[in-house]
Amino acid sequence: MSRQPYLSAVNERVIVFDGAFGTFVQDLDLGPDDFGGASLEGCNEYLCITRPDVIRQMHSAFLDVGVDVLETASFGSFSTVLSEYNISDKAYELNVEAARLARETANDYEASGKARYVAGSIGPGTKLPSLGHIRFAELRDAYIEQARGLIVGGADLFLIETCMDLLQIKAAMIACRRAMVAEGREIPIQVQVTMETTGRMLVGSEVGAALTAISAMKPDVFGINCATGPAEMQEHLRYLSQNASMPISVLPNAGLPSIVDGRTHYDLTPAELAKFHHHHVNDLGIGIVGGCCGTTPAHLKAVVDAVSGMAAPKRTPIVEPSVASIYSSVPMVQDKSFLIIGERTNTNGSKAFRDAMIAGDWDNCSKIATEQIREGAHVLDVCVDYVGRDGAIDMDEIASRFATQASVPLVLDSTEPQVLEAGLMHIGGRAILNSANLEDGEEVGCRMDRVFSLAREYGCAVICLLIDEKGQARDVEWKLEIAHRIHRIAVDRYGLSASDLIFDALTFPLSTGDDDLRLDAKHTIDAIKRIKDEIPGCFTTLGVSNVSFGLKPSSRHALNSVFLHECVQAGLDSAIVHAGKIVPLSRMPEEHKQVCLDLIYDRRTKDYDPLKKLLEIFADVNVVETVREDRTDWTVEQLLKQRIIDGDREGLTVDLDLAMTQGLAPLAIVNDVLLDGMKVVGELFGSGQMQLPFVLQSAETMKTAVAYLEPHMEKTGESSAKGVLVLATVKGDVHDIGKNLVDIICTNNGYEVHNLGIKIPITEMIQKVKEVKADALGMSGLLVKSTLIMRENLLEMNNTGVSEVPVILGGAALTRTFVEKDLREVYDGRVFYGRDAFEGLHTLDKLMAMKKSGIDDPELGRIPSGRVLPKRTGSADKPAVEIPSRSPDVIDDNQVFKPPFLGSKIVKGISLDDIAQYVNETALYRNQWQYRPEKDESDEDFKSRLRATFRQELSTAKSAGFLIPQVVYGYYCVNADGNDVVVWSDESRSTELTRFSYPRQSEAPFMCIADFFRTFDKGPDYAAFHIVTMGEAVSVEAARLFASNKYQKYMIIHGLGVEMAEALAELWHKRIREEWGFVNEDGPSIGGLFRQQYRGGRYSWGYPACPDLEDNATVATLLEAGRLGIEVSEETGWQYQPEQTTSAIICHHPQSKYFVAR
Fold first, then answer.
1. Average pLDDT of the residues in 205-210
2. Is the peptide bond before 435 cis (omega within 30 degrees of 0)?
3. Are 1091 and 1104 in contact (CB under 8 A)?
């Protein structure tokens, strides 16, 4: 029969693939002889030669149930895998046989008139190029041999499946295309990635990065298979459904495996798999389905019965042009910025980078890359070209490191195509090539031909310089002529699209004063606008600093900043800049800005030359960053003290050695010099002149210095500490960031600190106080309940006779009045309020000074003080009011939205980039990280400055893999019963699952959360619940940093985890509104969501309207949160573990907003 082409069938109807090869073979209990001997046992692919009947039997079993596509038994049939069995020479033969067996079996079933297709299976192998296991070219060549065999054997398409590494996919796709050229037959390429339970591919790629990198290679189908069951794939599939321009496939395992009777068992039933695939087709627009590990003919029969014959579903994806690192995707169009291309990893522009590369100091090269990301670069320009060196070798060294160590995409910058390809052989993400132009024409073999060919083969974007055979275009018309010509060539000859092209309009320096060049900047601005207008979909870039070449640094920064602003206003999408040297125009003097604009637009007059004026203005201006105080005449004591204040560890040990050679005793250096520096740090912090992140930097420097000096100290057997402090978070409270900051500050100010951790009972604290003869005890707690426990602890200390120990209390729920008035009336000893770590330190210093002098101040910490607040008006002072069972102000005839399902679901694999969009920047930068705006810095400039740090820390988290977002959520039928919300098992409302009790306001409007749901007699109502978590790994990473004395990083990572969890809760609340059907009532901005600009409300336990923390356990039981490893009990103070976890009840009632119930 004449078989309909595979892609034609895909566009016409739902296509069903077969199931698991390995599972089928394992169920046959084959022995060594079946494989051709003991040395080949387990090489399932070799059965194509030794037991072709088994392979035919498998294919027939799946064809019997009606599948459309057979996968060849060739998953590992290429030389790098087969070499483990010493049969690498059989690769070609095995693939020919595998394809032939499948094709012949499929032919037998086509008599009915239904087309059956053979997918040539190409697996990932056992060596991944991104991890350095194998060179790209070696893997590519092994795949070429496999692909040729599959073509010759009769495969209808290539299936590059179970992919764990984007670079491996590129090797396989290039191999398939080269094989098709060699064999003279083209067949489609279907690519399927494998997303682990972490939500990423094995090497750390998010699904967005995979789609960006691989869709640029133009596969015919893109999808997911293996590693997990369909439940764990939902977020990835949802992303692909919304963003993939090509057909999507999904071939999941039969759930997650378990071990039954010593064998791997998959628990997903055929009916359950069929139900998932019906959802994939109907709701997500996925047209290619099937099975992977654990799926049997019975599973596929159920799938065929559910979806076979359905029309191919239609989608309207939103394709956002992007580039990608191996970890994540970066849109070409940035919301709050232009795309910043860092320029310092460039041998032509950075002496530091060039020197490091020449010296083979690859660690320093990577450090320069990381610094650029920290300063705000979205993408890094990498140029290794240097006279007299082999650029391909240097690029091989640099790209092999940056591909995984740099968390942002790369621009490969070279005049030599072979150098570009050396880099591309290491980059799994989507790179940008810099650059192509028409300088040597457009013939085959010219530079542009070679660069565009690389872009097509590796899926790159290309920077196109507006240069032709006559030279660099100067005026606007010339620039546009070249841009249109390059665009036509790229699209018509190389199959690139406008969105693959980034035009650099180029500019000459304005600093020469040459009349011929005076309008160059203006021409560039005009050209940018016209390119964007006349070549829809393309992008623009510019090497901004060229405009100011030859000027002094201070004037360059000003001119670059103004010129960049004008270009962005004209439509510039990206710029190659040193992000740290761009000055916000709002902070630039008006005169400076105006002169720069006059120079750019050549507004000369008879009496005014803006170039001369610019030179005059900046004649005596130096760049602040380049000025460093002259310390040549400082003593070593002054130098060391200043190092502590500055947090400067570079060269620290040299100064410490110098101090000791000058006769200073190590202990004296600590007590008389370094601690003096920490005292200044405390004073600067207290006066608001130093922010906490920099305080922690000083503490790290102090810790490093003490650790270096300790081996040189005389061992006396006595502690050299100023005093001894025991610290603990009280029983039932898991929050420790504040306590740990006290530990850091006190430790690095000369105190011996014993930090007992979280959830510590008073008996354990007293025991440690006695054991170490503590001078003070510090208790910490975040919860209101913890303040009551602190009171009980003080009473217990009275009863056990240890009230002579001074106590310092700290935590967000405490007030100075409560501690210094109420608790001083309770405790027989001294008790102090610690507003922050430095107040705690100040208290310790006073206590130790008193102890050292022997002069006791009996009133210190004992006399009740603080404001005497008027008592809150209670019910006794008011006339009795009858409290209604339901607020009369809350309507009960509102629309009831029916949820999409009842019960709970687990969601994994949520994109960190998606979550990051919902981060509350104020909460993260100010509250968690404790940064503050600089002098005269606006809130937007402050946030813009900190966004670079946020991006860099998020990128680090992606590559390290310690943020693992997961959600368990669900919808339930509910009703109000007075102050209770009753949760039913189903819509029959006959069985109560659980109930939540909420407080009601004692005065009008008498509101209670239960009022937002209908009473039983009014019919069924619905509530959503969710628990979101960033996982345990971020807590482990924060603890590691704290233990390693990396205090600043500790606070950054802890805060990142907390606010990403809050952002995930915000994101998931929006997802619930989408599913529930009223997201159209949302406000226009994400910022508005933080102000409840949406229908309904989200209430987390512990807040005034729902204060009972024990309900955290109730909702955890309801949602079966233990499936995510979440724990909550009296032992944890009814707070979730991991710490970065939060929960909520979500109401759809339009009046459900925050209120206080008292």
1. 94
2. yes
3. no
For the chain, the 3-state helix, strand and coil shares in percent, each to the nearest 5, are 45, 15, 40
Secondary structure letter of residue 1137 according to DSSP: B
Coil/strand/helix, residue 600: helix
- Cα(574)–Cα(435) distance, rounded to whole angstroms? 15
Angle at 256 between CA 254 and CA 259, to 5 degrees: 105
User: CA-CA distance, 576 to 1031, in Å (whole number)?
Assistant: 37
DSSP 897: P
Signed CA dihedral, 590, 591, 596, 598: sign only: positive
Say if CB 320 and CB 247 are below 8 A apart: no
Asked if residue 571 lies in contact with residue 529, where contact means CB atoms within 8 angstroms, the answer is yes
Contacts of 1109 (CB under 8 A, 6+ apart): 783, 785, 1101, 1102, 1133, 1134, 1135
| DSSP states along 148-188 | HHHHHHT-SEEEEEEE--HHHHHHHHHHHHHHHHHHT----
Contacts of 799 by beta carbon, 8 Å cutoff, 6+ apart: none
Q: Has residue 1132 got a pLDDT over 60?
A: yes
State both tokens at 1026.
């969710």
In terms of pTM, does the model score above 0.85?
A: no
CA distance linking residue 322 with residue 941, whole number of Å = 26
Gap between the Cα atoms of 678 and 695, Å rounded: 9
CA Rg value for the chain: 34
CA-closest candidate to residue 229, choices 257, 249, 208: 257
Higher pLDDT, 491 or 633: 491
- Return the H-helix or E-strand segment holding 117: strand 117-122
Can you tell me the distance from the alpha carbon of 1037 to that of 1049, in angstroms, rounded to the nearest whole number? Answer: 10
Amino acid identity, position 483 = A
Q: Is the peptide bond before 965 cis (omega within 30 degrees of 0)?
A: no
How far is the C-alpha of 932 from the C-alpha of 921, rounded, in Å? 12
Check: CB of residue 113 under 8 Å from CB of residue 120: no
> In a 10 Å sphere around its CB, with 0-12 CB exposed, 13-18 middle and 19+ buried, how is residue 256 labelled?
middle
Q: At what angle do helices 737-747 and 837-853 cross, to 10 degrees?
A: 40
3-class DSSP state of 1021: strand
Could you give the CA distance from residue 911 to residue 958 in angstroms, rounded to a whole number?
A: 10
> Do residues 1023 and 976 make contact, with C-beta atoms less than 8 angstroms apart?
no
Place 447 in a pLDDT band, splitting at 50, 70 and 90. Answer: very high
801-828 pLDDT per residue, tens: 999 999 999 987 788 999 999 999 999 9
> Residue holding tokens 């602890």?
793
CA-CA distance, 119 to 173, in Å (whole number)? Answer: 14
Length of the chain: 1158
DSSP symbols for 725-788: EEEEEBTT----HHHHHHHHHHHTTT-EEEE--SSB-HHHHHHHHHHHT-SEEEEE--SHHHHH
Q: How far apart are CA 680 and CA 670, in angstroms?
A: 14
Q: Which residues contact 183 (CB under 8 A, 6 or more apart)?
A: 148, 151, 152
What separation in angstroms does the CA of 1070 have from each of 774, 971, 1082? 50, 14, 9
**Tens digit of each residue's pLDDT (9 = 90 or more) over 971-1008:** 999 999 999 999 999 999 999 999 999 999 988 899 99
Signed CA dihedral, 933, 934, 938, 941: sign only: negative
CA nearest neighbour of 457 among 140, 674, 738: 140
**3-class SS at 463?**
strand
- Under 8 Å between Cβ of 408 and 380: yes
Place of tokens 């199931």: 19
Strand-strand pairing, 461-465 and 467-468: unpaired
* DSSP codes, 640-666: HHHHHHHT--TTHHHHHHHHHHTT--H
pLDDT of residue 622: 62
Which pair of structure tokens corresponds to residue 501? Answer: 């092209």
Closest CA to 953 of 831, 1046, 1054, 879: 1054
Question: What pLDDT shows up at residue 169?
Answer: 98
